[in-house]
Each structure stands twice: as C-alpha cells, then as structure tokens.
Write a structure and sequence with these properties.
The protein is built from one helix and nine strands; from the N terminus they run αβββββββββ. By secondary structure, it is mainly beta.
C-alpha cells in the first residue's frame, strides 16, 4: 500500500470514529459553578451556545453546563468580570460537541443577553 493510501485510510478510520456518535448535551452530566453577585444588571454572553436564563430566589448566580464531546480539543469556561458573565463551550479539530447552559439569577437582577435586554426564560427546578 502506498503512503498516500495509508494516510487516506487512517484519516477515514479517524473520521468514522469521531463522527460515529453525535454529541448530545441532554445526555451529559451537568457541572455547576456559583458566583457571588451584588450588581443590579447582568450581561450574559454565551457566544451562540443555547442558554436558559432563569429568575430564582437565589442571592448568587448559578451556572450549569451540560457538555458532550466526541473527539478532541474541547474547551469550556464560565467567568464573571464585573457585570458580564462570559460563557464558552466548544471544540475544534476532528470533533463533534454539544453544549447547553442554564443561568439562575436573583429575581431583582436585570438580565441582558449580549448587551440587549431580555426576558428570563425557563422554570426554576
């Protein structure tokens, strides 16, 4: 077998292995993180990742992430800098990933989504 055929076969097998299952965030184990928050307005930036925003009786902010990855190079982060909550989850290269966030905020906080006012969605658990 030529080197070109060997490489092609290896890439085909790798692609089949990576794509043999589709990532599904609904089947992922949730991971939560809380942030102290005393502000009156919160700007949530989720970079096009589906995100439920929920008003609750909490005094802090709780972020829950469901993240399923088939492949390599996954990355996720949740950071609060001032009144901006930055949520990131994704993957690169030969990978399929699916992510979903849920953000629980105190009822009295005004919530922005990417700088624009939004209604909170979802129901408290």
């Amino acid at each position: 077998m030529t080197t070109r055929k060997t490489v092609w076969c290896a890439l085909t097998v790798l692609a089949a292995a990576v794509l043999s299952g589709c990532a599904d965030a609904s089947k992922a184990t949730p991971v939560s993180q809380t942030f102290s928050f005393s502000g009156r307005t919160l700007d949530v930036r989720a970079h096009e990742t589906p995100t439920d925003l929920v008003a609750t009786d909490r005094k802090d902010i709780k972020v829950t992430l469901w993240f399923d990855v088939h492949g390599t190079n996954p990355h996720s982060s949740q950071t609060l800098d001032g009144n901006t909550l930055d949520l990131n989850a994704g993957c690169s290269g030969w990978a399929d990933c699916s992510a979903r966030f849920r953000v629980e905020v105190p009822r009295e906080v005004t919530v922005l989504r990417d700088g624009r006012k939004t209604d909170l969605r979802g129901l408290p658990e």
